[in-house]
Amino acid sequence: MTNFIRFIMIGCAFLIFAKSANAQNRNDEIVLKGRVVDTSSNVRLENAVVNLLKAADSTFVSFKRSRKDGAFALENLSIGDYIFIVSYPKYADFTTAIRLDSSVDTLDLKDITMLPLPTLLDEVVVVGSKAITVKGDTIEYDPDSYVIQPNSRVEDLLKQLPGIQVNRNGQIVAQGKIVKRVLVDGEEFFGDDPTLVTRNIRGDMVAKVQLYDKKTEQAAFTGVDDGVRETTLNVKLKEEKKNGYFGKVQAGAGNKDFYEGQGMFNRFTNRYKIAAFLTGANTGTVGLSNTDEGRYVPRSQVSKGYNSDGMLSIDKLESTKYDGRGIPTAYTGGFHYDGNWRENKEKININYKGGSLEVIGSGREDAFTMLADDVLNSRSEQNFDDKTKTHIVDAKYERTLDSTSTIRLYVRGGKIETEKNSHFQTSVFNNALQELNRNLRDIQSEGDERFLQTDLLWNKKLTKPGRTISIALDQVSSTLKRDGTLMSSTVYFVENKKKDELLDQVKTDKNDLFNFNSSIVYTEPLSKNFSLSANYRFNLNDGNSSYLSFDKVIGESVLKIDSLYSSVFKLKQFSNLLGLTLAYSSVKHILNAGISGASVNFRQTDEFKDSLYRRDFMNYSPSLSWTFRISDAKSLRMNYLGGNTLPLVTQVQPLMNNIDPLNTVVGNPELRPSFKHSLSGVYTRYNMLSGRTLMVSLNTSIVVNDIAGAIKINERGERVYRYENMKDRMAKNFSSTVYYGGTLKSMGLALGGSANISHGTTNHTINDDLNQVTANTVALYLNLRKSVKEKYDFSFEGGPAYMENVASNQKHLSVKGWGANAIGSGGVYLPGRLELSTDANYMFYPSTVLFPTDFSRFIWNAGLSRKFLKTNELSVRLSVNDILNKNNGLNRSTSSASMIERDFTTIKRYFMLSLTWDFNRI
Amino acid sequence: MVRIYRYSMVKQGFFLFLCCLQSIFCCAQHFNFVESGEIIYEKKVNMHAKIKGRFMNDKVLNSDFWEDYKKTKPQFFVEKKKLLFTADHSFFSSLGTNVQPSSAEAGEPWVVVKNTVATDFEANNEFITKQVFGDEFEIADKKEKILWKYTYEEREIAGYRCKRANGLYRDSVYVVAFYAEDIIPSGGPESFWDLPGMILGVALPHENVSWFATEVTPLTSGEIPKPKMKGKKKPVSKSDFFDQLKETTKNWGSYRTEAIKAFSL
Fold this sequence. Notes:
Radius of gyration of chain B: 22 Å
Order of helices and strands of chain B: HEHHEEHHEEEEEEEEHH
Radius of gyration of chain A: 32 Å
Number of helices of chain B: 7
Distance between the termini of chain A: 21 Å
Oligomer: heterodimer
Largest sheet of chain B: 11 strands, antiparallel
Number of helices of chain A: 7
Largest interface: A-B, 57 and 45 residues
């Protein structure tokens, strides 16, 4: 606590400028004097330590003890910037920055008034407190430097941290990157849903928040970088808060049948953590976390972030997603346990998550596709009812065998069921407003998927320090079944000749996949700073898939197979990868240079047509990374990665699919891998005395031989997609963000601003004409926040953005203009234990040639709550969502070849009354 | 003109409130600073780290020796030291050990070196009697200037609140020191000094050596021993001593760097 106060004092003190018309003094003869007194009684303090440090590096310049009358004089000082600290036992340290310039030869600080520390505060011993510390590649935030309102959650704390943004759905963006994982004390907590940590755990339990790019376990162990990174937040809890239980129960009911309910319970001890939750709502605010991401990913497909290992991508059921379209009804539940024994030598972590999500809605979509001599407009109307049920269990067991080796077993299994019903009605018009075709479709499908993944990892440190060996084995097996029906009728109006096409089919899909992976990594220290690592990986993919279509024949009960749109495949893929990495590490620098090569052999047997298709590839991937720890406060990180992306099976030899007869895909057996170079860098500076943060990040990539779409659109308005290598043109991407922020001490206001520039070019062809799409954005962003504990808090973030989207084949239809985005929120603690909170969200899109009206949306929500009971644990809240009833569900987007406007069913204004019980026994 | 901005209104109000409380319940705090006394330090040399380092880096020792040493010998070599101090003088000496050093310990420069340091705070002079492998040197010179860096870290040692400072001694040895502002003389164990308070803890993280105070008591004897000149020769200066040290250790091989570091303290 003493340090905390000291930091407030630093914050409160300001530069002392000495200006006087006196004669110039000599360089090293400045005298700094003053008197140390007690604020309350004006007693002079003798023997106080008066200390002058060099501002640049905190080295001691001069110190003295104050005399009997509290006076002191530091002599023979030279011009410069200093930190001046006065300390006296049982008083808070007085700290200020001082500039000595040549205008005076004696600077008199007069009375330095010291504040006595209350005895209460003095009893707590706190070691070193800094708002932000950069340790290697980890940024560490200290929650004590921020305002934590009573009953607030981790999310409310995160919102205050510089460089971190949390959106309405709880998604966290740190330094421009999405945070994939939130850990508690370094342990997984319910897998990959960050809100289960951020909206569950209390803000006052947090000792530290650490932000870093997590490496794979093998890389972390061997110290050799394999280039795979996941932006991770680790929430470290205070030791004294780890014994007890806490949680909340919330239930709410609204008009128009809206409801919301959630329950969370946590029991933490030093030995184990148990947590469970249950939610149910149709308001689109809870239970929407995307469980799809964490379903399973074979190791081969995580590597390097590229699919350099093969052409096979696993067929997965498409889970229901809620993106603001339709009305979602979600139920979720889960259980978590992690514990350790034998002084942390054995650890176990078990999670279960299950739930269902149903989204029902309807809407329209208006899309323009630009051709060289025409613009096609496709207008469609759509009704949908999608449902997904998931159950996923995972367990991790880790054991330290002895001081040099550990073993880890990880098992994950799950079951996913989907049910989809949709109805489409689409018409395509040309520029002259002639209708080219009209299509009516009903698609219905039911799917069932099960998977089991097992990973085994063994790490061993050999006797020579730095010499390690690590072996990983893992397998995934999955089975997918999907049954569905398709009814489609298409009418073509070409040259005034009407032509009809009718489809009434039953479809059954089956897909079995087995993936096996083994890898071995060996590291050898070459000298004190250098080490070399070699790794070898073998990967096997074995799949069987059958996609069958049957025609319903009128009057007959037997179905007739449609051989054109049916296929039965056997797939086999081997890959062997060999890699070498050279690492250098010293106190200031960490350098990693690596190269890996992989040979991929792919075989596909079409049992239906009795044909064999083979491809063999050789891939190379160089990587280079450099971390420069300039000082405690400054760091720089640069990364280069190159690698191949292999064409997917579906791009080389796709399944003939008639699920959307107006949009079909044909294969290109000539496709070659593309090569992507990416370079990124981050510079971070945190100034402790002023609390200011500067972050500059840069990301750029180019893709050579890019696998790009070649779309053919015929006069009937049908599209055929094919993929080709762009030989002479590269796809380019560049983006850079500068963030600068700090605290305006005089107002207690956290203030930050950022600027972002991005530029991207992609290429594709439409009817053999090259179309180059260039997208440029310049965005400015301001954020303000002020919190006063138990009084109020408010925040604003937002700013304008200039967007430009130019398609080379139809330049006059380019999208250009200023848009804007803003989010504001505030809360006031009123007398009578009332709390008023409100938030608003505004966005503006400029008009374009194709969509000639500006589009803006302002959504405003507010709520009033009152706390009950002695402990304030119970609260009642009345809230209104979308007070102005402006959520019209309209949305505009631009993709490479087309511009789209969508208008769908959304959640509009509703009222809700809810009761929350927030319990805490820690 | 001097402008000093202080606390924002809210904070000021809060502090004023606390100050009012303070003045109601308590009189102004006058602190009894320590001006003289006796400090017992424990000097610890981490022999496991020393031997492991030597075995790993220099391959001087073989792995069996290390395995055996680890199992049979204690991790630390511990020796008690005493510092007597007043406002203007201090005297640092060894209280010896009651255990016989093992052969490895007896060969370790950081264990072997024993200094008696008499400091005159007025004149910034020190008189060192240095025992190195049985040889005794007498050195009289100015105190060594140490470049100290302030940190915001604190810890408690022997009941005193100490601040941490990081230093560089003779441009080569990284020093972490903890000093108590409550004790006025700017002294410390061995030749460490020049911080605004008494140094109660010193760690040389790269050398695996530390001195930490275990108790601070009032001075029992009224007099601080004055430096005793045993030798007949005149005491040498520091630079002369180092020249001599470098000359004698010329053929010491991998021990040399560490020996010079240890003996130069």
